[in-house]
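Saturday, quiet lab. Running sequence design on the C-alpha cells for the scaffold JK sent over.
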C-alpha cells in the first residue's frame, strides 16, 4: 500500500465553473487555494446563447433586431427553489407556460433561497431553465424578489431579508453569468420597494433613484446588453416621480404592479396618473398583478382583469400575470398534476392568445 510522501502538490480543480490552482494535501487539509478562487462564476458556454433575437430598447418600446415592437405577455412562476423541492422543476413546466401563449417568464429569486442554496447551487438550477426557455422560444425576466426598504435594511417578511451588499453582489453575479445570452433579457432589480407608512423606515424617490442608478452601472459593466427594470415605490406601483426625476440611465424599463386593491374605481384615471403617463416616454411593464377567485355575491373579478389588460395594452404596456403555481396567491394553477388552470389562469390564457 502506497503512503502519501508529499504534503503539497499543485493541480487544477473546477471552482464555480472555472479552473483554478489547487493545493493537493493530506486528508483534512485545504483542497483549493483561496487566492486563486474567482468571485463571480464565468458565463456558461451555451451554444444556444444567441438563438433568440436580441431584445433592446428604442424610445419607449422594447424591440427586436428589425425594430419590431415586442409587447410583453407572460406569467411569473414561483421561486425555483420551491418548485424544485416539490419535484416540478423541468422542461414541462415551461412548456405549459408556452402553451398558455406566454412570450416571457418571470423568475422570482428570494434572498433567503439564494443564500440557502448558495449562488453556485442556484445558478446550477437556473442554467437548465434558460436552456429550456431558449428551446421553447421564451424570454426570461430575472427578479430579485424582496419587499421592503433596501436603504434602511428593513423588510416585510424574513424571506425578503437582504442587504445593499447582497443585492449588488447578486446582480453582479447574474449579469456576468448570463452575459451575451439573449434569452435572459430582463433584470428586475428589486421586486417591491416600500416603506409601509414608515414602518420600514424612510426612503425618498431620489434615494431610491440613486440606488437603482448604481445597480444599473454594475449590471451594465458586466453585461452591456441587459435591460434593467426599475420598480416604482408603493410596492412597485407608483411611477409618478418620473414626471420630474427619471432614472439617469439609458435603455432601461420601468415596472408597475397594478393590483386591483391599489386604487378604487374608476381605475383608469388613477392608472393614468400613477403610471400610465410614463409609457409615452419609457418602456413600462406590469411585471406582477392578478385577481383572486370571485366569492359568492361579490363583483366578478374578471371585470378588473378585462379593464387592466385593455388599459395596459392600449398604452403599449406589457404585462406578466402572477402566479403559475397552485400554492401561492393569486394562483393561476389549481394543481400540478395534472396542470389545471384556475378561473384567472383561464382568463390570462385567453388574453395572451388574443391577436
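Result came back. Writing it out in full:
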Amino acid at each position: 500500500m502506497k503512503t502519501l510522501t508529499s504534503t503539497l502538490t499543485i493541480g487544477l480543480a473546477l471552482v464555480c465553473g472555472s479552473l483554478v490552482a489547487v493545493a493537493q494535501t493530506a486528508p483534512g487539509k485545504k483542497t483549493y487555494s483561496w487566492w486563486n478562487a474567482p468571485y463571480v462564476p464565468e458565463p456558461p458556454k451555451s451554444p444556444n446563447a444567441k438563438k433568440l433575437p436580441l431584445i433592446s430598447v428604442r424610445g419607449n418600446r422594447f424591440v427586436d433586431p428589425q425594430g419590431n415592437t415586442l409587447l410583453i405577455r407572460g406569467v411569473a412562476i414561483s421561486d425555483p427553489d420551491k418548485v424544485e423541492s416539490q419535484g416540478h422543476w423541468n422542461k414541462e413546466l415551461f412548456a405549459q407556460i408556452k402553451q398558455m401563449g406566454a412570450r416571457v417568464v418571470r423568475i422570482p429569486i428570494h434572498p433567503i433561497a439564494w443564500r440557502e442554496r448558495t449562488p453556485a447551487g442556484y445558478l446550477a438550477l437556473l442554467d437548465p431553465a434558460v436552456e429550456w426557455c431558449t428551446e421553447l422560444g421564451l424570454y426570461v425576466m430575472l427578479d430579485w424578489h424582496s419587499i421592503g426598504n433596501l436603504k434602511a435594511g428593513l423588510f416585510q417578511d424574513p424571506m425578503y431579508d437582504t442587504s445593499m451588499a447582497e443585492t449588488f453582489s447578486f446582480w453582479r453575479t447574474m449579469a456576468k453569468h448570463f452575459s451575451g445570452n439573449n434569452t435572459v433579457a430582463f433584470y428586475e432589480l428589486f421586486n417591491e420597494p416600500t416603506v409601509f407608512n414608515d414602518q420600514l423606515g424612510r426612503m425618498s424617490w431620489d434615494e431610491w433613484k440613486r440606488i437603482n442608478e448604481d445597480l444599473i452601472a454594475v449590471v451594465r459593466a458586466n453585461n452591456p446588453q441587459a435591460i434593467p427594470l426599475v420598480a416604482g415605490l408603493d410596492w412597485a406601483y407608483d411611477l409618478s416621480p418620473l414626471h420630474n426625476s427619471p432614472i439617469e440611465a439609458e435603455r432601461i424599463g420601468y415596472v408597475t404592479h397594478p393590483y386591483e386593491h391599489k386604487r378604487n374605481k374608476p381605475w383608469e384615471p388613477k392608472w393614468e396618473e400613477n403610471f400610465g403617463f410614463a409609457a409615452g416616454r419609457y418602456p413600462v411593464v406590469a411585471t406582477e398583478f392578478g385577481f383572486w377567485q370571485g366569492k359568492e355575491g361579490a363583483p366578478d373579478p374578471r371585470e378588473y382583469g378585462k379593464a387592466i389588460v385593455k388599459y395596459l395594452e392600449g398604452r403599449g404596456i406589457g404585462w406578466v400575470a402572477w402566479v403559475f403555481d397552485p400554492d401561492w396567491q393569486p394562483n393561476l394553477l389549481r394543481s400540478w398534476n395534472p396542470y389545471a388552470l384556475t378561473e384567472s389562469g383561464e382568463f390570462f390564457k385567453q388574453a395572451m392568445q388574443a391577436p
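Notes for JK: Residues 1-38 form one domain. Residues 1-25 have pLDDT under 50 and may be disordered. Ask whether to fix the surface positions before the next round.
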